[in-house]
Amino acid sequence: EPIRIIPIGGGLNAPLFFQYLAEDKVIRPDPASGKKLWELRNAKASAAALWGDMAVFYQYPEIFGADIIQGKFLWRRKLEGVDWEKEKAKESWRMPTYKTYEGRGATVACGAGIAAVLTPDGKIIVLDPCSGDVLWERQIPDPIFTRVEIIDGTVVLHTRRPLRVLFFAADTGRQLSSFDNRNLPSGAGKQIF
User: What integer pLDDT is reported at residue 105 of this predicted model?
Assistant: First the structure.
């Protein structure tokens, strides 16, 4: 049965999760024995982020929190408001990457008591990782996201087109600042993180 590894931040000590591609289930194997510790049925995930003994799993349009010790759903939410077919038809449409960058999840992140996810229609949605309640959301005009991070109580959003980094207050969603990395001095790299 074909499987894929679900990218998750946390480096070498992070737990391992798989998504069965033929079925809608997420599993957690024991790395020492290879035996299945648990499985969540009716679940899809392309990215995940840890928050204590739980993880927030994400594959648009669904996001869910799960207890990673017992393998139980804590909450589930379907993100509404995106016409999937319309977004795919746009010439500039890009789904956020599901690769990791230096061990960090690209489309979902947890930290400072929040979880942040990126949607294909250019939205950042911030939730309570324990309940799944939406705390705030922002529409970002015409972005192609590369990743989201939560650093020191700030939500940091990286976009590829245009090349910029946006900073938001984690608790309110107020934009604090932005940095256009096309304006770096000549000879400098084009990526700042």
Answer: 35
